[in-house]
Description:
mainly alpha; globular
Amino acid sequence: MGISPGTVDWLRGRGHDAVHLHERGWDRLPDPEVLEKARDEGRVLLTHDLDFGQLLALSGAASPSVIVFRLADMRPDSVNRHLDQVLQRAGEDLARGAIISVEESHEPAAD
Length: 111
């Protein structure tokens, strides 16, 4: 939700069965219905909308997994770079059901 089709193409290029909401005509559905469709299809939902993580947490359901991007730069190259790290580090968690928030790291300034 709110993720560029470029990221979907990037995922497909790496062998993932990725779809964009717009391709399915789901981009105008209410958030709970999008979450339900992602659950029914066994998908991981990528979004920058905090509502999906909250809806999943409140539902008590274990799926679908949700990755929430909280990045200043939401261009595909930036999202893809962060997503690659998430997939490497948390692939098993995503398979079991997880809510993952992706934020830019803030390193302390050197004195």
